[in-house]
Amino acid sequence: MIVPWGKPMRRSLYVAFLIVPIVLVVVFLLIPLVLSILPTFTKPNGGWLKYKTFFTDPFTRTIFFRSLRLSLITTLICVALGLPTSYYVSQLGANRKRILNSLILFPLLTNAVVRGFAWISILGKNGLLNQALLSLHLISSPKQMLYTEGAIVVGSVYLFLPTMISTLTPVMERIGSETIEAAYTLGARPLTTFFRIVVPLSFSGVLVASVMVFAGTISAYTTPTLLGGNKNMMLSTLLYQQSNTLSNWDAASLIAFIMILCSVGVMKIFNLLADRLDKRG
Amino acid sequence: MYHHRLLRSIAIITLAFLFVPLFLIVLTSFNSTDTISLPLEGFSLAWFSKVFASRSLMGSLKTSMLLGIFAASLGLVIGLFAAIALNKRKGKFSSFLLSLFLSPSLIPGIVIGYVLFRMLVVLLEIPLTTAMLLGHLLVVLPYTVRILSAGIRECDVSIEEAARTLGCTPVQAFVKVVLPDLQPAVLSAFMLAFINSFNNIPVSMYLKAPGMNTLPYAMMNYIEYTYDPTVSALSVMLMALTLVFMVLSDLLAAHGENRRNS
Lengths: 281, 262
Known about the structure:
heterodimer, A: mainly alpha, 14 helices, globular, B: mainly alpha, 2 domains
Protein backbone atom coordinates (compact mmCIF):
# COMPACT_ATOMS: atom_id res chain seq x y z
CA MET A 1 0.00 0.00 0.00
CA ILE A 2 1.25 3.44 -0.82
CA VAL A 3 0.52 5.98 1.88
CA PRO A 4 1.02 9.58 0.75
CA TRP A 5 2.58 12.09 3.09
CA GLY A 6 2.63 15.86 3.28
CA LYS A 7 0.71 18.02 0.86
CA PRO A 8 -0.23 16.34 -2.39
CA MET A 9 1.93 17.17 -5.34
CA ARG A 10 0.66 19.07 -8.35
CA ARG A 11 -0.56 16.78 -11.11
CA SER A 12 1.80 18.23 -13.72
CA LEU A 13 4.79 17.65 -11.45
CA TYR A 14 3.58 14.14 -10.65
CA VAL A 15 3.46 13.30 -14.34
CA ALA A 16 6.85 14.95 -14.97
CA PHE A 17 8.49 12.88 -12.24
CA LEU A 18 7.05 9.63 -13.50
CA ILE A 19 7.21 9.98 -17.26
CA VAL A 20 10.83 8.83 -17.66
CA PRO A 21 10.49 5.46 -15.87
CA ILE A 22 7.09 4.89 -17.50
CA VAL A 23 8.56 5.43 -20.96
CA LEU A 24 11.57 3.30 -20.03
CA VAL A 25 9.54 0.29 -18.93
CA VAL A 26 6.64 0.56 -21.38
CA VAL A 27 8.42 1.64 -24.56
CA PHE A 28 11.68 -0.23 -24.10
CA LEU A 29 10.49 -3.38 -22.39
CA LEU A 30 6.77 -4.12 -22.41
CA ILE A 31 5.96 -3.09 -25.99
CA PRO A 32 8.99 -4.92 -27.43
CA LEU A 33 8.01 -7.92 -25.32
CA VAL A 34 4.45 -7.96 -26.64
CA LEU A 35 5.63 -7.32 -30.20
CA SER A 36 8.02 -10.28 -30.00
CA ILE A 37 5.51 -12.67 -28.50
CA LEU A 38 2.42 -11.72 -30.52
CA PRO A 39 3.68 -13.24 -33.81
CA THR A 40 3.95 -16.67 -32.16
CA PHE A 41 0.13 -16.69 -32.05
CA THR A 42 -0.87 -14.83 -35.18
CA LYS A 43 1.53 -15.90 -37.90
CA PRO A 44 0.24 -18.32 -40.51
CA ASN A 45 1.20 -21.95 -39.94
CA GLY A 46 1.84 -20.84 -36.38
CA GLY A 47 -0.47 -20.15 -33.51
CA TRP A 48 -1.29 -22.96 -31.18
CA LEU A 49 0.34 -25.43 -33.50
CA LYS A 50 3.79 -24.09 -32.63
CA TYR A 51 3.11 -24.47 -28.94
CA LYS A 52 1.78 -27.95 -29.53
CA THR A 53 4.93 -28.82 -31.45
CA PHE A 54 7.06 -27.43 -28.64
CA PHE A 55 5.42 -29.73 -26.13
CA THR A 56 5.36 -32.81 -28.36
CA ASP A 57 8.81 -32.59 -29.91
CA PRO A 58 11.01 -34.84 -27.75
CA PHE A 59 13.97 -32.43 -27.84
CA THR A 60 12.14 -29.34 -26.60
CA ARG A 61 9.82 -31.27 -24.32
CA THR A 62 12.80 -32.83 -22.54
CA ILE A 63 14.33 -29.38 -22.02
CA PHE A 64 11.04 -27.97 -20.73
CA PHE A 65 10.50 -30.73 -18.21
CA ARG A 66 14.19 -30.73 -17.20
CA SER A 67 13.90 -27.00 -16.41
CA LEU A 68 10.78 -27.57 -14.31
CA ARG A 69 12.20 -30.65 -12.58
CA LEU A 70 15.60 -29.17 -11.72
CA SER A 71 14.00 -25.92 -10.50
CA LEU A 72 11.62 -27.91 -8.30
CA ILE A 73 14.42 -30.09 -6.86
CA THR A 74 16.54 -26.99 -6.23
CA THR A 75 13.65 -25.31 -4.42
CA LEU A 76 12.97 -28.36 -2.24
CA ILE A 77 16.64 -28.70 -1.27
CA CYS A 78 16.82 -24.98 -0.47
CA VAL A 79 13.75 -25.33 1.77
CA ALA A 80 15.14 -28.42 3.50
CA LEU A 81 18.51 -26.78 4.20
CA GLY A 82 17.20 -23.25 4.65
CA LEU A 83 14.65 -23.99 7.39
CA PRO A 84 17.08 -25.43 9.98
CA THR A 85 19.77 -22.90 9.06
CA SER A 86 17.58 -19.82 9.38
CA TYR A 87 16.12 -21.24 12.62
CA TYR A 88 19.66 -21.67 13.94
CA VAL A 89 20.67 -18.14 12.87
CA SER A 90 17.51 -16.60 14.32
CA GLN A 91 18.26 -18.12 17.74
CA LEU A 92 21.78 -16.69 17.98
CA GLY A 93 22.82 -13.65 20.01
CA ALA A 94 22.75 -10.25 18.33
CA ASN A 95 26.45 -10.04 17.49
CA ARG A 96 26.91 -13.53 16.08
CA LYS A 97 23.66 -13.11 14.17
CA ARG A 98 24.88 -9.90 12.56
CA ILE A 99 28.13 -11.54 11.46
CA LEU A 100 26.41 -14.64 10.09
CA ASN A 101 23.81 -12.52 8.30
CA SER A 102 26.49 -10.60 6.45
CA LEU A 103 28.37 -13.83 5.71
CA ILE A 104 25.18 -15.22 4.16
CA LEU A 105 24.69 -12.02 2.19
CA PHE A 106 28.22 -12.24 0.82
CA PRO A 107 27.71 -15.07 -1.70
CA LEU A 108 24.46 -13.37 -2.75
CA LEU A 109 26.37 -10.30 -3.88
CA THR A 110 29.16 -12.31 -5.49
CA ASN A 111 29.08 -12.68 -9.26
CA ALA A 112 27.31 -15.80 -10.55
CA VAL A 113 30.31 -16.60 -12.76
CA VAL A 114 32.56 -16.68 -9.70
CA ARG A 115 30.16 -18.99 -7.91
CA GLY A 116 29.80 -21.20 -10.96
CA PHE A 117 33.56 -21.27 -11.40
CA ALA A 118 33.97 -22.42 -7.79
CA TRP A 119 31.88 -25.48 -8.61
CA ILE A 120 33.69 -26.11 -11.89
CA SER A 121 36.96 -26.32 -9.98
CA ILE A 122 35.38 -28.63 -7.41
CA LEU A 123 33.36 -30.94 -9.66
CA GLY A 124 35.56 -31.02 -12.78
CA LYS A 125 37.25 -34.16 -14.06
CA ASN A 126 40.56 -33.00 -12.57
CA GLY A 127 38.68 -31.02 -9.95
CA LEU A 128 39.27 -30.80 -6.24
CA LEU A 129 36.64 -33.38 -5.31
CA ASN A 130 37.99 -35.98 -7.74
CA GLN A 131 41.53 -35.25 -6.53
CA ALA A 132 40.47 -35.76 -2.94
CA LEU A 133 38.51 -38.95 -3.66
CA LEU A 134 41.39 -40.36 -5.72
CA SER A 135 44.01 -39.64 -3.07
CA LEU A 136 41.78 -41.26 -0.45
CA HIS A 137 41.44 -44.29 -2.77
CA LEU A 138 37.66 -44.06 -2.61
CA ILE A 139 37.49 -44.14 -6.40
CA SER A 140 39.96 -45.56 -8.91
CA SER A 141 39.31 -43.20 -11.83
CA PRO A 142 37.88 -39.66 -11.95
CA LYS A 143 34.09 -39.54 -11.85
CA GLN A 144 32.06 -37.44 -14.28
CA MET A 145 30.37 -34.92 -12.03
CA LEU A 146 30.53 -31.72 -14.04
CA TYR A 147 28.17 -31.27 -17.01
CA THR A 148 25.42 -33.30 -15.37
CA GLU A 149 21.95 -32.40 -14.12
CA GLY A 150 23.28 -32.93 -10.59
CA ALA A 151 25.91 -30.25 -11.14
CA ILE A 152 23.19 -27.80 -12.25
CA VAL A 153 21.21 -28.55 -9.10
CA VAL A 154 24.25 -28.12 -6.83
CA GLY A 155 25.14 -24.84 -8.54
CA SER A 156 21.56 -23.55 -8.39
CA VAL A 157 21.18 -24.50 -4.72
CA TYR A 158 24.45 -22.68 -4.11
CA LEU A 159 23.12 -19.69 -6.03
CA PHE A 160 19.79 -19.40 -4.22
CA LEU A 161 20.33 -20.79 -0.73
CA PRO A 162 21.37 -17.34 0.58
CA THR A 163 18.07 -15.94 -0.77
CA MET A 164 16.12 -18.65 1.05
CA ILE A 165 17.99 -18.18 4.34
CA SER A 166 17.94 -14.38 4.34
CA THR A 167 14.20 -14.40 3.59
CA LEU A 168 13.38 -16.97 6.28
CA THR A 169 15.54 -15.60 9.13
CA PRO A 170 13.36 -12.50 9.79
CA VAL A 171 10.25 -14.71 9.58
CA MET A 172 11.72 -17.01 12.24
CA GLU A 173 12.64 -14.03 14.39
CA ARG A 174 9.04 -12.86 14.32
CA ILE A 175 7.88 -16.14 15.84
CA GLY A 176 9.42 -14.94 19.08
CA SER A 177 11.07 -16.85 21.87
CA GLU A 178 7.89 -16.82 24.01
CA THR A 179 6.12 -19.14 21.61
CA ILE A 180 9.06 -21.51 21.50
CA GLU A 181 9.53 -21.39 25.26
CA ALA A 182 5.83 -22.09 25.74
CA ALA A 183 6.21 -25.21 23.62
CA TYR A 184 9.13 -26.35 25.76
CA THR A 185 7.28 -25.58 29.00
CA LEU A 186 4.41 -27.71 27.76
CA GLY A 187 6.84 -30.56 27.26
CA ALA A 188 7.52 -30.45 23.51
CA ARG A 189 10.96 -31.70 22.56
CA PRO A 190 13.27 -29.62 20.33
CA LEU A 191 12.51 -31.55 17.14
CA THR A 192 8.77 -31.57 17.84
CA THR A 193 8.88 -27.84 18.48
CA PHE A 194 10.70 -27.29 15.22
CA PHE A 195 8.34 -29.36 13.09
CA ARG A 196 5.05 -28.58 14.86
CA ILE A 197 5.58 -24.93 15.82
CA VAL A 198 8.41 -23.27 13.89
CA VAL A 199 7.85 -24.79 10.45
CA PRO A 200 4.07 -24.22 10.30
CA LEU A 201 4.45 -20.65 11.59
CA SER A 202 7.01 -19.80 8.92
CA PHE A 203 5.13 -21.50 6.10
CA SER A 204 4.03 -18.34 4.29
CA GLY A 205 7.66 -17.16 4.39
CA VAL A 206 8.73 -20.50 2.91
CA LEU A 207 6.24 -19.98 0.06
CA VAL A 208 7.53 -16.48 -0.68
CA ALA A 209 11.17 -17.61 -0.66
CA SER A 210 10.36 -20.72 -2.73
CA VAL A 211 8.88 -18.56 -5.47
CA MET A 212 12.08 -16.54 -5.62
CA VAL A 213 14.21 -19.69 -5.75
CA PHE A 214 12.04 -21.43 -8.34
CA ALA A 215 11.70 -18.40 -10.61
CA GLY A 216 15.39 -17.66 -10.19
CA THR A 217 16.49 -21.18 -11.07
CA ILE A 218 14.23 -21.50 -14.10
CA SER A 219 15.45 -18.18 -15.51
CA ALA A 220 19.16 -18.49 -14.62
CA TYR A 221 21.50 -18.60 -17.59
CA THR A 222 25.05 -18.61 -16.21
CA THR A 223 24.82 -21.64 -13.94
CA PRO A 224 23.29 -24.13 -16.42
CA THR A 225 25.75 -22.95 -19.08
CA LEU A 226 28.82 -23.35 -16.89
CA LEU A 227 27.80 -26.51 -15.02
CA GLY A 228 25.36 -28.25 -17.37
CA GLY A 229 27.28 -28.11 -20.63
CA ASN A 230 25.67 -28.65 -24.01
CA LYS A 231 23.93 -31.90 -23.17
CA ASN A 232 21.83 -30.64 -20.30
CA MET A 233 20.16 -27.61 -21.82
CA MET A 234 17.59 -25.59 -19.92
CA LEU A 235 14.98 -23.17 -21.29
CA SER A 236 17.33 -20.20 -20.88
CA THR A 237 20.22 -21.84 -22.73
CA LEU A 238 17.84 -23.00 -25.45
CA LEU A 239 16.50 -19.46 -25.82
CA TYR A 240 20.03 -18.10 -26.23
CA GLN A 241 20.95 -20.79 -28.75
CA GLN A 242 17.81 -20.25 -30.84
CA SER A 243 18.12 -16.46 -30.92
CA ASN A 244 21.81 -15.82 -30.99
CA THR A 245 23.25 -18.77 -32.87
CA LEU A 246 20.34 -19.63 -35.16
CA SER A 247 18.47 -16.29 -35.34
CA ASN A 248 15.28 -18.32 -35.09
CA TRP A 249 13.09 -15.52 -33.75
CA ASP A 250 9.83 -17.47 -33.71
CA ALA A 251 11.26 -20.27 -31.61
CA ALA A 252 13.10 -17.85 -29.32
CA SER A 253 9.97 -15.74 -28.70
CA LEU A 254 7.97 -18.86 -27.96
CA ILE A 255 10.53 -19.97 -25.37
CA ALA A 256 10.62 -16.47 -23.90
CA PHE A 257 6.84 -16.55 -23.46
CA ILE A 258 6.95 -20.00 -21.88
CA MET A 259 9.66 -18.83 -19.46
CA ILE A 260 7.60 -15.81 -18.43
CA LEU A 261 4.54 -18.00 -17.98
CA CYS A 262 6.52 -20.41 -15.80
CA SER A 263 8.05 -17.83 -13.47
CA VAL A 264 5.10 -15.41 -13.28
CA GLY A 265 2.60 -18.29 -13.13
CA VAL A 266 4.34 -19.94 -10.21
CA MET A 267 4.63 -16.55 -8.53
CA LYS A 268 0.90 -15.88 -8.84
CA ILE A 269 -0.08 -19.33 -7.58
CA PHE A 270 2.27 -19.18 -4.57
CA ASN A 271 1.33 -15.61 -3.65
CA LEU A 272 -2.32 -16.62 -3.75
CA LEU A 273 -1.55 -19.53 -1.43
CA ALA A 274 0.47 -17.29 0.91
CA ASP A 275 -2.39 -14.75 1.04
CA ARG A 276 -4.85 -17.50 1.93
CA LEU A 277 -2.58 -18.72 4.70
CA ASP A 278 -2.11 -15.21 6.05
CA LYS A 279 -5.85 -14.64 6.20
CA ARG A 280 -6.37 -17.92 7.98
CA GLY A 281 -3.50 -17.42 10.42
CA MET B 1 19.40 -21.86 23.22
CA TYR B 2 17.17 -24.83 22.61
CA HIS B 3 19.01 -26.48 19.81
CA HIS B 4 18.55 -29.99 18.70
CA ARG B 5 21.77 -31.64 17.60
CA LEU B 6 20.36 -32.71 14.24
CA LEU B 7 19.06 -29.25 13.37
CA ARG B 8 22.28 -27.59 14.44
CA SER B 9 24.38 -30.01 12.40
CA ILE B 10 22.30 -29.34 9.28
CA ALA B 11 22.69 -25.61 9.86
CA ILE B 12 26.45 -25.80 10.31
CA ILE B 13 26.91 -28.08 7.28
CA THR B 14 24.77 -25.70 5.21
CA LEU B 15 26.79 -22.69 6.28
CA ALA B 16 29.99 -24.58 5.47
CA PHE B 17 28.53 -25.47 2.06
CA LEU B 18 28.04 -21.75 1.44
CA PHE B 19 31.56 -20.66 2.31
CA VAL B 20 33.91 -23.56 1.55
CA PRO B 21 33.74 -23.25 -2.27
CA LEU B 22 34.59 -19.54 -2.13
CA PHE B 23 37.34 -20.26 0.36
CA LEU B 24 38.80 -22.93 -1.95
CA ILE B 25 38.95 -20.40 -4.79
CA VAL B 26 40.90 -18.03 -2.57
CA LEU B 27 43.34 -20.83 -1.69
CA THR B 28 43.92 -22.01 -5.26
CA SER B 29 44.43 -18.45 -6.52
CA PHE B 30 47.73 -18.35 -4.58
CA ASN B 31 48.96 -21.70 -5.87
CA SER B 32 52.16 -21.74 -7.91
CA THR B 33 51.08 -24.59 -10.24
CA ASP B 34 49.07 -23.87 -13.33
CA THR B 35 46.28 -26.28 -12.43
CA ILE B 36 43.57 -25.75 -9.86
CA SER B 37 44.67 -28.25 -7.23
CA LEU B 38 45.21 -28.75 -3.54
CA PRO B 39 47.29 -29.00 -1.41
CA LEU B 40 49.18 -25.87 -2.41
CA GLU B 41 52.58 -26.52 -3.95
CA GLY B 42 53.90 -23.07 -3.27
CA PHE B 43 52.79 -19.53 -2.71
CA SER B 44 52.61 -17.30 -5.74
CA LEU B 45 51.01 -14.07 -6.85
CA ALA B 46 51.63 -14.91 -10.51
CA TRP B 47 47.93 -15.38 -11.28
CA PHE B 48 47.10 -11.95 -9.95
CA SER B 49 49.73 -10.33 -12.11
CA LYS B 50 48.39 -12.34 -15.05
CA VAL B 51 44.98 -10.75 -14.48
CA PHE B 52 46.51 -7.27 -14.48
CA ALA B 53 48.52 -8.09 -17.59
CA SER B 54 45.49 -9.37 -19.53
CA ARG B 55 44.30 -6.53 -21.70
CA SER B 56 40.94 -8.16 -22.42
CA LEU B 57 40.14 -8.75 -18.74
CA MET B 58 41.23 -5.30 -17.63
CA GLY B 59 39.40 -3.67 -20.54
CA SER B 60 36.21 -5.50 -19.67
CA LEU B 61 36.64 -4.55 -16.01
CA LYS B 62 36.72 -0.91 -17.05
CA THR B 63 33.64 -1.37 -19.25
CA SER B 64 31.71 -3.03 -16.43
CA MET B 65 32.74 -0.36 -13.93
CA LEU B 66 31.71 2.52 -16.21
CA LEU B 67 28.47 0.80 -17.19
CA GLY B 68 27.65 0.03 -13.55
CA ILE B 69 28.35 3.58 -12.37
CA PHE B 70 26.36 5.06 -15.23
CA ALA B 71 23.36 2.72 -14.85
CA ALA B 72 23.33 3.05 -11.05
CA SER B 73 23.56 6.86 -11.09
CA LEU B 74 20.91 7.34 -13.73
CA GLY B 75 18.73 4.64 -12.18
CA LEU B 76 19.09 6.38 -8.84
CA VAL B 77 17.93 9.75 -10.17
CA ILE B 78 15.00 8.24 -12.08
CA GLY B 79 14.10 6.07 -9.10
CA LEU B 80 14.29 8.98 -6.68
CA PHE B 81 11.89 11.14 -8.69
CA ALA B 82 9.57 8.18 -9.17
CA ALA B 83 9.63 7.32 -5.46
CA ILE B 84 8.89 10.93 -4.49
CA ALA B 85 5.99 11.18 -6.91
CA LEU B 86 4.51 7.83 -5.91
CA ASN B 87 4.58 8.76 -2.23
CA LYS B 88 3.73 12.44 -2.55
CA ARG B 89 0.46 12.18 -4.39
CA LYS B 90 -2.05 9.44 -4.06
CA GLY B 91 -2.75 9.11 -7.75
CA LYS B 92 -5.27 6.54 -8.89
CA PHE B 93 -2.49 4.68 -10.58
CA SER B 94 0.27 4.93 -7.97
CA SER B 95 -0.04 1.34 -6.88
CA PHE B 96 -0.19 0.13 -10.46
CA LEU B 97 2.81 2.28 -11.42
CA LEU B 98 4.87 0.86 -8.58
CA SER B 99 4.29 -2.66 -9.87
CA LEU B 100 5.06 -1.42 -13.38
CA PHE B 101 8.46 -0.14 -12.21
CA LEU B 102 9.16 -3.38 -10.35
CA SER B 103 8.09 -5.55 -13.29
CA PRO B 104 11.55 -5.83 -14.92
CA SER B 105 12.64 -7.86 -11.90
CA LEU B 106 9.88 -10.40 -12.59
CA ILE B 107 10.91 -11.00 -16.19
CA PRO B 108 13.84 -13.41 -16.63
CA GLY B 109 17.02 -11.47 -17.46
CA ILE B 110 17.63 -13.53 -20.56
CA VAL B 111 14.18 -12.61 -21.89
CA ILE B 112 14.89 -8.90 -21.31
CA GLY B 113 18.18 -9.27 -23.17
CA TYR B 114 16.58 -11.17 -26.04
CA VAL B 115 13.63 -8.82 -26.45
CA LEU B 116 15.81 -5.69 -26.45
CA PHE B 117 18.17 -7.29 -28.95
CA ARG B 118 15.38 -8.50 -31.20
CA MET B 119 13.35 -5.28 -31.23
CA LEU B 120 15.73 -2.40 -30.54
CA VAL B 121 18.89 -3.66 -32.19
CA VAL B 122 17.74 -5.93 -35.01
CA LEU B 123 14.47 -4.21 -35.93
CA LEU B 124 14.98 -0.53 -35.04
CA GLU B 125 18.77 -0.58 -35.47
CA ILE B 126 19.38 1.39 -32.28
CA PRO B 127 23.14 1.43 -31.57
CA LEU B 128 24.28 -1.38 -29.26
CA THR B 129 25.76 0.98 -26.69
CA THR B 130 22.42 2.78 -26.28
CA ALA B 131 20.57 -0.52 -26.08
CA MET B 132 23.05 -1.76 -23.48
CA LEU B 133 22.51 1.33 -21.31
CA LEU B 134 18.73 1.00 -21.61
CA GLY B 135 18.96 -2.69 -20.69
CA HIS B 136 21.04 -2.01 -17.61
CA LEU B 137 18.72 0.85 -16.58
CA LEU B 138 15.82 -1.61 -16.76
CA VAL B 139 17.80 -4.06 -14.63
CA VAL B 140 18.57 -1.54 -11.87
CA LEU B 141 15.25 0.39 -11.85
CA PRO B 142 13.32 -2.08 -9.64
CA TYR B 143 16.06 -1.93 -6.99
CA THR B 144 16.30 1.85 -6.80
CA VAL B 145 12.52 2.37 -6.86
CA ARG B 146 11.89 -0.28 -4.20
CA ILE B 147 14.61 0.87 -1.78
CA LEU B 148 13.95 4.59 -2.20
CA SER B 149 10.16 4.17 -1.84
CA ALA B 150 10.70 2.26 1.38
CA GLY B 151 13.17 4.92 2.54
CA ILE B 152 10.77 7.77 1.83
CA ARG B 153 7.93 6.01 3.60
CA GLU B 154 10.08 5.71 6.71
CA CYS B 155 10.98 9.40 6.75
CA ASP B 156 9.42 11.50 9.47
CA VAL B 157 6.69 13.58 7.82
CA SER B 158 6.47 16.04 10.70
CA ILE B 159 10.02 17.29 10.11
CA GLU B 160 9.21 18.17 6.54
CA GLU B 161 6.00 19.86 7.61
CA ALA B 162 7.93 21.82 10.24
CA ALA B 163 10.38 22.97 7.56
CA ARG B 164 7.47 24.06 5.38
CA THR B 165 5.83 25.94 8.27
CA LEU B 166 9.13 27.68 8.95
CA GLY B 167 9.10 29.04 5.42
CA CYS B 168 10.93 26.51 3.26
CA THR B 169 9.75 25.99 -0.28
CA PRO B 170 8.88 22.34 -1.07
CA VAL B 171 12.19 21.95 -2.90
CA GLN B 172 14.17 23.50 -0.05
CA ALA B 173 12.38 21.33 2.47
CA PHE B 174 13.17 18.26 0.43
CA VAL B 175 16.84 19.04 -0.18
CA LYS B 176 17.62 20.34 3.31
CA VAL B 177 15.45 18.10 5.46
CA VAL B 178 14.23 14.99 3.68
CA LEU B 179 17.29 14.18 1.58
CA PRO B 180 19.72 13.99 4.53
CA ASP B 181 17.26 11.66 6.23
CA LEU B 182 17.13 9.59 3.06
CA GLN B 183 20.90 9.31 2.70
CA PRO B 184 21.28 5.67 3.84
CA ALA B 185 18.53 4.56 1.43
CA VAL B 186 20.13 6.50 -1.41
CA LEU B 187 23.51 4.89 -0.76
CA SER B 188 22.21 1.35 -0.46
CA ALA B 189 20.07 1.85 -3.58
CA PHE B 190 23.14 3.00 -5.48
CA MET B 191 25.28 0.10 -4.31
CA LEU B 192 22.69 -2.58 -4.96
CA ALA B 193 22.03 -1.07 -8.39
CA PHE B 194 25.75 -0.99 -9.17
CA ILE B 195 26.31 -4.59 -8.05
CA ASN B 196 23.35 -5.84 -10.08
CA SER B 197 24.49 -4.04 -13.19
CA PHE B 198 28.09 -5.12 -12.66
CA ASN B 199 27.15 -8.78 -12.15
CA ASN B 200 24.60 -8.92 -14.95
CA ILE B 201 25.24 -11.42 -17.73
CA PRO B 202 22.09 -12.16 -19.74
CA VAL B 203 21.37 -8.57 -20.76
CA SER B 204 25.01 -7.71 -21.50
CA MET B 205 25.47 -10.92 -23.47
CA TYR B 206 22.90 -9.88 -26.06
CA LEU B 207 23.70 -6.20 -26.22
CA LYS B 208 27.47 -5.99 -26.06
CA ALA B 209 29.10 -4.21 -28.96
CA PRO B 210 31.79 -6.19 -30.82
CA GLY B 211 35.07 -6.00 -28.95
CA MET B 212 33.44 -4.45 -25.89
CA ASN B 213 32.99 -7.19 -23.32
CA THR B 214 31.69 -6.81 -19.81
CA LEU B 215 33.75 -8.51 -17.13
CA PRO B 216 31.43 -11.41 -16.20
CA TYR B 217 31.00 -12.27 -19.87
CA ALA B 218 34.74 -12.02 -20.51
CA MET B 219 35.26 -14.36 -17.56
CA MET B 220 32.79 -16.86 -18.97
CA ASN B 221 34.59 -16.81 -22.30
CA TYR B 222 37.94 -17.22 -20.58
CA ILE B 223 36.72 -20.26 -18.63
CA GLU B 224 35.51 -21.84 -21.86
CA TYR B 225 38.99 -21.85 -23.39
CA THR B 226 41.46 -21.86 -20.51
CA TYR B 227 41.33 -23.59 -17.17
CA ASP B 228 43.96 -22.10 -14.86
CA PRO B 229 43.99 -20.13 -11.59
CA THR B 230 43.80 -16.78 -13.42
CA VAL B 231 40.04 -16.85 -13.00
CA SER B 232 40.53 -17.79 -9.33
CA ALA B 233 42.66 -14.70 -8.87
CA LEU B 234 40.12 -12.53 -10.67
CA SER B 235 37.35 -14.06 -8.54
CA VAL B 236 39.28 -13.17 -5.38
CA MET B 237 39.57 -9.60 -6.60
CA LEU B 238 35.83 -9.44 -7.25
CA MET B 239 35.11 -10.92 -3.82
CA ALA B 240 37.34 -8.25 -2.28
CA LEU B 241 35.31 -5.64 -4.16
CA THR B 242 32.06 -7.13 -2.80
CA LEU B 243 33.53 -7.10 0.69
CA VAL B 244 34.48 -3.42 0.39
CA PHE B 245 30.94 -2.63 -0.69
CA MET B 246 29.43 -4.55 2.21
CA VAL B 247 31.68 -2.97 4.84
CA LEU B 248 31.06 0.44 3.32
CA SER B 249 27.29 0.09 3.37
CA ASP B 250 27.44 -1.32 6.91
CA LEU B 251 29.49 1.64 8.11
CA LEU B 252 27.22 4.11 6.35
CA ALA B 253 24.14 2.46 7.82
CA ALA B 254 25.67 2.65 11.30
CA HIS B 255 26.58 6.29 10.67
CA GLY B 256 23.00 7.02 9.63
CA GLU B 257 21.63 5.34 12.76
CA ASN B 258 23.94 7.38 14.97
CA ARG B 259 22.96 10.61 13.32
CA ARG B 260 19.29 9.83 13.65
CA ASN B 261 19.61 8.96 17.31
CA SER B 262 21.75 11.95 18.26
